[in-house]
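Quick review question:
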């Protein structure tokens, strides 16, 4: 029985909606419910009703005892991916009407000129120029032409547009002209439908700033009404605590804060890994972690170095650039529902599309026709036929086998077992490349990191992937399958400010940066205190963006004191790590100052138990294809709920746990630590072969 008050985290994924509740005594209740992409509000309420039934409470009683509900959703990302956003009008400086069309002139594949750019989100007829001009330092060269603004507003209204984005040249240095344009627009438009670039994305570079502002406007029509509606429905059903959203920066914020900049939700959900990894660092005893969060549709990876999860201010969503403070998440189309096919050359392919929650993998028996990674795992015996995902599904291994036979056996003569092994090995390879992208390609030695296997499917692949990469340890939290929902309950309220300032980096510049940072901290403090009295005092962190003279890109360096030599040394060390050298005698330039403010609310406590080593008995055996070299074997099966701290076992083995299934290979050693989580010590591959 839950003891009030409790907190609830809800993460809507492509296949499942995950719910985690933690009560006043630290008791945890979890639930996985099929997602409802057609009606996310109904999906959230269905998940809460399911949790209420599990805990023996009425839904109103459950919400009435909830002191904080934190929500993560892919609605902003899906709006962009599906092309179902608002009709946006863009006000821009005369001469820069086509900034969105021109873009940055960069191609991801320099030698491939065939892939088209994504469709421009604002057609040219809705991109209207306005008289007025600022220079790069924000000085007014020409006054804003207010008649142009009024005419554009009338034209947008006449065209039946939904909202307006305002992006004037150099507004990052001075937002006065954009603010005046907004005042004029307010006579025709609701405040929630006007978005100004100096507020959304105050970065230098007109394309990135304009693209970010347009994206915020584009997703607003679905994001803001959804959040307002959900908040209202939750209130009607008894919620007395606040509804908070997980932002791209890994922190939480109110609905009102999100309405100011809906682009802050573009990585909502996966960004909750910050709070979750912080908890893992405390339980695992290491601050160097790489998360492999693999769900039904995608796999999201993040790297924590020295207790800090790496961040960025550039997100690419389907080819559209958003400059917003974000966790540095690398997402790949690799999930349990990734569809397996043969390409035109007869090779096994996997994804990028997935089966989703409906119809889902073939083995769900919901009408899916295309075999998936989940179907392959079932045929290999690593997943068991029968009840799955808290008895919400029933896996049919014969249906999965028939689908693999149809796609591979009837075409190229590949038997279902062999096809399934090929699909899983291909997935392992895709995941290995993804891990290398966030680590080795950025100068990090994987031998110094622990791989954290999370998501419903991560623990099926992590041992194989970690072994191939040279990692020695894989850590699997008990709540791996609801990792992000759990992380939401261990996240801080966080708000960010940035100010661009281009000048040589010296003591005079440092004095100006100190003044600017202090002003931003005052503003952030007032906004943070609006979240109530239960949180900690606001804590601020500062970063300076630096680069060498005449360079376009920059590095963000943490700024903890005014020792200029220390800052330069840190910058040069970071530069050398990334590029193999540093320009010791080149002038260093200031690009921007960043200030982040956060408040901690009661997080998830760590409960340690006594450890008594023992070898647990297996609950049964099952035929499992362990590897290509090892073939099939009768493998020990364990129920995770029966494994207590101190349990030791050697692979190959399968552990059926509450939110995930763990598979370990030959010679891998799994133990349950004092916090009741799984630690896997990976077997070292034999010389010239695999373990």
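Suggested answer, residue by residue:
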């Amino acid at each position: 029985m839950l003891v009030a008050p409790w907190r609830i985290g809800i993460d809507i994924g492509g296949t499942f909606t995950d719910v985690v509740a933690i009560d006043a005594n630290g008791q945890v209740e979890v639930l996985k419910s099929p997602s409802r992409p057609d009606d996310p509000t109904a999906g959230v309420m269905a998940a809460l009703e399911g949790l209420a039934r599990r805990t023996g409470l009425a839904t109103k009683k459950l919400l009435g005892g909830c002191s904080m509900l934190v929500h993560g959703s892919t609605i902003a990302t899906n709006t962009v991916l599906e092309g179902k956003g608002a009709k946006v009008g863009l006000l821009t400086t005369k001469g820069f009407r086509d900034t969105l069309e021109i873009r940055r002139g960069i191609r991801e594949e320099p030698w491939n000129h065939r892939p088209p750019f994504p469709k421009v989100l604002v057609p040219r007829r809705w991109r209207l120029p306005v008289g007025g001009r600022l220079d790069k330092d924000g000085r007014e060269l020409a006054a804003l032409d207010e008649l142009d603004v009024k005419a554009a507003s009338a034209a947008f209204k006449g065209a039946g547009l939904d909202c307006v984005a305002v992006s004037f040249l150099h507004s990052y240095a001075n937002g006065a002209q954009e603010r005046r344009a907004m005042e004029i627009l307010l006579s025709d438009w609701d405040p929630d439908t006007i978005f100004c670039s100096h507020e959304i994305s105050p970065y230098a570079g007109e394309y990135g700033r304009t693209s970010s502002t347009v994206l915020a406007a584009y997703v607003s029509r679905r994001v803001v009404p959804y959040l307002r509606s959900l908040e209202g429905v939750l209130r009607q059903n008894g919620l007395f605590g606040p509804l908070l959203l997980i932002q791209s920066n890994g922190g939480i914020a109110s609905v009102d804060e999100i309405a100011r900049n809906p682009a802050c939700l573009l990585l909502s959900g996966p960004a909750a890994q910050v709070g979750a990894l912080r908890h893992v660092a405390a339980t695992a005893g290491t601050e160097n972690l790489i998360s492999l969060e693999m769900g039904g549709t995608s796999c999201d990876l993040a790297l924590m170095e020295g207790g800090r999860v790496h961040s960025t201010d550039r997100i690419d969503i389907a080819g559209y650039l958003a400059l917003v403070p974000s966790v540095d998440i690398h997402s790949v189309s690799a999930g349990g529902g990734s569809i397996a096919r043969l390409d035109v050359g007869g090779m096994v392919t996997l994804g990028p599309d997935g089966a989703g929650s409906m119809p889902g993998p073939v083995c769900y028996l919901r009408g899916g026709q295309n075999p998936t990674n989940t179907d392959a795992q079932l045929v290999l015996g690593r997943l068991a036929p029968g009840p799955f995902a808290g008895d919400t599904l029933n896996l049919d291994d014969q249906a999965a086998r028939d689908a693999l036979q149809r796609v591979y056996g009837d075409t190229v003569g590949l038997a279902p077992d062999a096809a399934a092994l090929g699909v899983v090995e291909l997935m392992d390879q895709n995941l290995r490349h993804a891990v290398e992208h966030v680590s080795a390609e950025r100068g990090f030695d994987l031998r110094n990191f622990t791989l954290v296997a999370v998501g419903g499917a991560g623990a099926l692949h992590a041992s194989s992937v970690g072994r191939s990469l040279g990692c020695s340890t894989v850590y699997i939290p008990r709540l791996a399958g609801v990792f992000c929902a759990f992380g939401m309950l261990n996240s801080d309220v966080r708000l960010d400010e940035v100010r661009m300032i281009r000048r040589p980096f010296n003591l005079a510049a440092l004095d100006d940066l100190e003044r600017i940072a202090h002003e931003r901290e005052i503003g952030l403090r007032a906004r943070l205190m609006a979240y109530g009295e239960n949180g900690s005092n606001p804590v601020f962190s500062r970063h300076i963006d630096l680069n060498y003279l005449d360079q376009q890109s920059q590095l963000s360096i943490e700024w903890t004191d005014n020792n200029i030599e220390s800052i330069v040394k840190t910058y040069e060390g970071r530069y050398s790590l990334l590029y193999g050298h540093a320009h010791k005698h080149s002038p260093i330039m200031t690009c921007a100052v960043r200030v982040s403010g956060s408040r901690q609310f009661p997080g998830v406590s760590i409960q340690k138990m006594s450890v008594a080593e023992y070898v647990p008995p297996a609950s049964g055996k099952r035929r499992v294809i362990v590897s290509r070299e090892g073939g099939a074997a009768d493998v020990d099966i364990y129920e995770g709920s029966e494994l207590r701290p101190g349990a030791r076992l050697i692979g190959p083995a399968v552990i059926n746990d509450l939110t995930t299934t763990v598979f370990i290979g030959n010679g891998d050693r799994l133990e349950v630590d004092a916090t009741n989580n799984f630690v896997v010590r990976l077997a070292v591959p034999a010389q010239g072969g695999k373990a």
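Why it works: The longest strand covers residues 493-504. The mean pLDDT is 90.
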